[in-house]
């Protein structure tokens, strides 16, 4: 067999040097609300969604100055709290490190392992039809495409908080080298999550998870909505914002809530800053080398957003479709929605793939009870993959990370950091919901299977059979 020279891959990303900084990372629950609101700027004729001051006229020191810029409003300063600042910086740094880390973890190591094969073996596999080294080059290209989104999300995050892209190392606001490997995994999952929420190919997952919510909302509220009443819907654990957007488009006032900066930056970007419909490419499965029927499957590209939020809302406004509003509150759900200002303030709560993020489900039920109006509706869709299992955050190596928000279970402050955890079965959860002041009106049945960022062609299908049920807060 002819001897081949090792091809040299020259890549933009520098894969040498430390990838994981020795900076300790911990998470404190968000103890104060940091509401960050988006609203359609339709009156001024713009298609942009933009931020506005929600509750306070006090300008945050870190707000962007530009008019029409999406920004962070509210009187909570994340820089004033050590844990919060670390979380914010680590999320930003994880998007910065995404490109380099992915090249290192996904292709660089595979090249090394490949060249460690007996030379006649790697040489055979370097030739067509295998061309494995070409495959690695294509995967590098796919990583670079994904990294463009990471860069855009990072730029938006930096702008939102008025942070420098390259701060001096001794600057107290230096956020470089603060991300851990787990933070970079979250950045990666967040980018893959665009498949679920904002690609045409993710429609099958959305149909199982979001359509029941919209149907239930219509059944309950359509006539009141059409009569001009404002119907307020809370979407806790809003992820990348698609359900918030769809709820708004359906004519309701949707308030999303998220604790994870990864998710908040990415949803802000996709809701406010994409260049147009299908303007950005993502390769959601490029890093997966197992259970492939073909390489084409691995390198599949999806375009996002399948629907451009600004264009869709302008179109809805033109056609006189009742149009709602949307906002996003960055906070620990347990803290923000237990506040007295949120008492009995929502007509509905729509929890999708959310309740199993609870270490203590009783706290989640109390919070939903507190913020729902008497007679209000709680619509739930999702599995019970408890994110705190056996007292510890669950670690899944092969699955997409569906947790996103970190929890430090050693925290003693209120919110998700409160000590203790328990994992209940579906029948026990329903029993608890009834015991805590709700009447179950629709019980789980006719379960539709769905994945979570699942490659439909993979030889391994991780499928949920989510529990869909509807409960009403009993009027006392
Ligand atoms: C499994 S993801 C589901 C996201 C989205 N609902 C979906 O269906 O794709 C759960 C989300 O809940 C968020 N989350 C977890 N605990 C939270 C809390 N205490 N307050 C607000 N959001 C939380 C996580 O950051 C994550 O984005």
From TrEMBL:
Gene Ontology terms for molecular function: carnosine N-methyltransferase activity
Region: Disordered, residue numbers: 393-421
Alphabetical keyword list: Methyltransferase, S-adenosyl-L-methionine, Transferase
Protein name in the entry: carnosine N-methyltransferase
Organism: Penicillium diatomitis
Family annotation (SUPFAM superfamilies): S-adenosyl-L-methionine-dependent methyltransferases
Family to which the UniProt record says this protein belongs: Belongs to the carnosine N-methyltransferase family.
Composition bias, Polar residues: 403-414
């Amino acid at each position: 067999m002819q001897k081949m020279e090792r091809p040299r891959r020259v890549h933009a990303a520098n894969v040498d040097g430390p990838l994981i900084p020795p900076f300790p990372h911990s998470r404190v629950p968000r103890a104060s609300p940091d509401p960050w609101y988006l609203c359609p700027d339709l009156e001024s004729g713009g298609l942009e969604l933009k931020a506005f001051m929600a509750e306070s006229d006090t300008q945050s020191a870190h707000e962007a100055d530009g008019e029409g810029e999406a920004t962070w409003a509210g009187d909570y300063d994340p820089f004033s709290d050590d844990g919060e600042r670390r979380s914010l910086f680590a999320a930003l740094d994880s998007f910065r490190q995404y490109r380099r880390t992915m090249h290192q973890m996904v292709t660089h190591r595979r090249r090394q392992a490949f060249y460690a094969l007996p030379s006649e073996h790697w040489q055979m596999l370097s030739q067509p039809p295998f061309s494995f080294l070409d495959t690695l080059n294509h995967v590098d290209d796919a990583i670079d495409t994904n990294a463009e989104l990471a860069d855009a999300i990072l730029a938006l995050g930096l702008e939102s908080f008025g942070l420098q892209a390259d701060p001096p190392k001794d600057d107290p606001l230096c956020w470089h080298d603060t991300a851990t490997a787990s933070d970079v995994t979250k950045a990666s999952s967040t980018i893959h999550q665009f498949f679920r929420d904002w690609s045409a190919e993710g429609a099958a997952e959305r149909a199982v998870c979001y359509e029941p919510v919209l149907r239930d909302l219509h059944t309950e509220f359509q006539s009141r909505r059409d009569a001009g009443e404002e119907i307020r819907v809370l979407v806790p654990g809003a992820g990348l914002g698609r359900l918030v957007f769809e709820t708004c488009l359906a004519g309701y006032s949707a308030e999303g809530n998220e604790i994870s900066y990864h998710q908040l930056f990415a949803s802000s970007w996709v809701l406010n800053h994409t260049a147009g419909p299908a303007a950005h490419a993502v390769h959601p499965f490029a890093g997966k080398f197992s259970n492939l029927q073909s390489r084409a499957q691995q390198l599949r590209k999806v375009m996002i957003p399948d629907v451009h939020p600004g264009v869709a809302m302008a179109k809805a406004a033109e056609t006189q479709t009742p149009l709602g509003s949307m906002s996003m509150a960055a906070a620990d759900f347990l803290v923000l929605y237990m506040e007295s200002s949120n008492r009995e303030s929502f007509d509905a709560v729509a929890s999708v793939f959310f309740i199993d993020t609870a270490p203590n489900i009783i706290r989640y039920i109390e919070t939903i009870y507190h913020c729902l109006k008497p007679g209000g509706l709680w619509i739930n869709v999702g599995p019970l993959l408890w994110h705190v299992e056996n007292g510890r955050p669950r670690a899944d190596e092969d699955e997409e990370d569906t947790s996103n928000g970190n929890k430090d279970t050693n925290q003693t402050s209120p919110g998700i950091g409160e000590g203790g955890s328990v994992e209940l079965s579906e029948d026990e959860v329903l029993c608890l919901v009834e015991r805590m002041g709700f009447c179950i009106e629709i019980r789980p049945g006719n379960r539709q299977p769905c994945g979570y960022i699942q490659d439909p062609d993979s030889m391994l299908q991780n499928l949920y059979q989510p529990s869909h049920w509807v409960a009403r807060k009993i009027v006392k």
